[in-house]
Structure formats: C-alpha cells, structure tokens
Specification:
By secondary structure, the protein is of the alpha+beta class. The chain has 14 helices and 12 strands. The chain starts with a helix and ends with a helix.
C-alpha cells in the first residue's frame, strides 16, 4: 500500500505534466460555502460531505471536490481561454463502505475554451489516457447531452419533460415516470376517483402537512392536466429505450444512434457533436475503434455533467472506485456565472489508486 509521501510525489509529477500542456496551477480553500453546494446538488450532498458551521460564515463543507470552486474562480476572474491544474485533498463521508477512503488526493485538469469544444474534449481525454498509460484500465465514455436532447424534444408537455429531466440521474424513478407517461402503468390507486370529484378537498381527505388549500388545488389541476395528456408515442418510447441500451465502440455506437434519430430527430445536433469528437480523438492518436461508448454512462454519478463523460476503471478490481473521471459541464458555468457561460470540460485522477493498481501488477 502506497504511503502518503508516495501519493503526494505522484500527484506532483502528474500536475507537472498538466503544466507542460499549458495549465496554470491553482488551489482552493479546504472549507467551501455549503450554500452554493446545496443550491446545485440539493440536500443529497449533505449525506456525502463533512458539514460544519461558523458564526460569521454560516454553514461550510470540507471540500468534496475541486471542480465547483475552480469554476467559481474562473467565472469571477479568469481569462479566456484558460487551462487549470490542481492537486490536494478532498473529503467524502463513507457511512456504508468502511474500506473506502474518506480523505484522498485528487489531481485535476480543466479547460475553458469556447472555440473548439470537440477538440477540448479530446484534449482532456487524451491527456488523461497518457497519464494512465501502462495501467490495466478500461476506458468508458458516454454523452449525457444525447439523452437530455432526446427528453427535451419529446412531443409531450413541458411539465412531463421537466419531471423526466429532474430524475434523469435516478434511472429507476426515470423508468417509472417514462412508463406512466407512455400509458404503460396506471397512476396511484384511487387517484382518478379523487381527481374526478367535483370538489376533491371536500371528499373526506384529511388536511395533513403544511400545504395550503390553494397549493393543493394547483397540484390537483396539474394532475388532471397530466391525466388528460395523450401518452408518449410508441415510436418515441422505442427510440428512447433503444438509445439507453446502446453500448458499443464509438463508431458503431454513432451508427446505431443515427438509426435512433429516425424516431428521435432532436438528437441529431448532439450526434453531430459526437461525430466531431470522434474525429478529434482520432487526430490525437486515440484508438476510437476500441473505445467503448455507453449512451447511459454517467447517469448515476455525474450529476453536473451535461455532455461528454468518461471514466477509467481497473480491470479485475470492481471493488475500486474509478481511477479517473471527467466530462463536459457547460451548464455549471452558466449556473455559477450569473448569466455568463463558457464551454468547459475537465476531470480528476486518483494517484493513490494508480499506485495501488501498479503494485498489483508488479
């Protein structure tokens, strides 16, 4: 098992390589304002982070990652284009797996460049692959933007599309909603009788909770509208299901997704971006003929990414977390930029896991 000095030495060496690629070294405070993190991720982040409080600064969290504070820094004072690298500790609570570290070192590389997003995607991925060269790792890629384009272009109500987008990161709940909106599953038992009542609030249902009568009436109206909305068409549903099951090497995945676009034409611009990314990866020497692409990849663990996503995993060690992960997060720059935005892509590596994998193969 590598000791702390070895991990720090590896992190420093990796950071130097990113500097050689044009990155500026940055650092961020260990304590981060909890309000910003909670606004972005909701209360779910509270279960994964160490939270403390300060009489002057309010709730704060030990840094759960670097990306968010680096984006905040860039949107406040960064020049364009910009490349950053960093290394340091991050902290994650581990209440269910005592073997996973609750404090570890991350090394990262972030690119803010609006001129060539596909080229930036390829740059980040190829630099990560170079850092990891020689290790027995499997690379996985995906594109959250294709799925979001498919959902946002469905011929159904904005309310339904918003519900699906909200649960995009929860595959089981997303599937339940999709089946219901397609008419495959009925609503909750007794709901229709309640909605059909002339005055549902007078139907003997007790008033429990803090919602006011006007809020309940608005919710009932929304449920009635949803019940009377035609189901998502069989063609669109079949297209979504086929899309989610695409798992091939990059060129074959693109070919399959072009077929899906016959039923879901709204994904065509996202597929054009995928095609440009494939060409950019090839130009950087990446063997795309052997690079896996999964259309559903990243849905459960990469909530702030909205485009290209990737990860590197140790073959034969399913017990290990990803050795490296990354992707595109254009929407995050918009959220933190007070209306301003810039295409951005980046990722992080775990030098401790790299050393562990190296020891196992020696």
């Amino acid at each position: 098992m590598a000791n702390r000095s070895q991990i720090q030495a590896r992190a420093a060496m990796m950071r130097v390589r990113f500097e050689a690629a044009g990155a500026q070294v940055v650092d961020t405070p260990l304590l981060q304002p909890a309000e910003t993190l909670l606004d972005l991720y909701g209360e779910d982040i509270r279960a994964r982070a160490y939270v403390t409080s300060d009489a002057l600064r309010g709730e704060q969290m030990l840094r759960p990652d670097f990306t968010l504070p680096v984006v905040q820094m860039h949107m406040t004072e960064g020049a364009e284009p910009a490349r950053y690298t960093y290394s340091g500790e991050v902290f994650r609570r581990q209440e269910h797996d005592p073997d996973r570290s609750n404090e570890y070192i991350q090394v990262g590389y972030e690119v803010f460049d609006r001129d060539d997003p596909s080229g930036a995607d390829a740059e980040v991925f190829s630099l990560f692959a170079l850092q990891l060269r020689g290790l027995p790792l499997r690379a996985a890629t995906g594109d959250i933007g294709i799925l979001t384009a498919a959902v946002q272009g469905l011929r159904t109500t904005d309310r339904r599309k918003s519900a699906l987008m909200r649960h995009l990161w929860r595959p089981r709940r997303f599937r339940v909603l999709l089946d219901r909106f397609a008419g495959r599953k009925p609503g909750p038992e007794g709901r229709d009788a309640l909605l059909d009542a002339e005055d549902p609030l007078a139907a003997g249902v007790p008033m429990i909770g803090k919602r006011r009568a006007t809020e309940i009436e608005a919710r009932i109206d929304a449920l009635r509208e949803d019940r009377d909305t035609p189901p998502i068409s069989d063609n669109e549903l079949a297209g979504l299901e086929t899309l989610l099951n695409v798992r091939e090497t990059m060129p074959f995945a693109l070919e399959q997704l072009r077929d899906v676009a016959v039923d879901l034409p709204q994904i065509t611009p996202a597929l054009d971006r995928l095609e440009a990314r494939i060409a950019a990866l090839q130009a950087r020497g990446v063997d795309v003929e052997r690079l896996d692409f999964e259309a559903a990849y990243g849905r459960t663990s990469m909530e702030y990414y909205d485009g290209f996503v990737f990860g590197f995993y140790a073959e034969g060690r399913p017990d290990l977390p990803p050795i490296a992960t990354g992707g595109r997060y254009d929407a995050l720059t918009r959220q933190l930029g007070n209306g301003a935005e810039i295409p951005a892509v980046g990722g992080v590596l775990r030098p401790d896991l790299m050393l562990e994998v190296e020891e196992a193969v020696q």
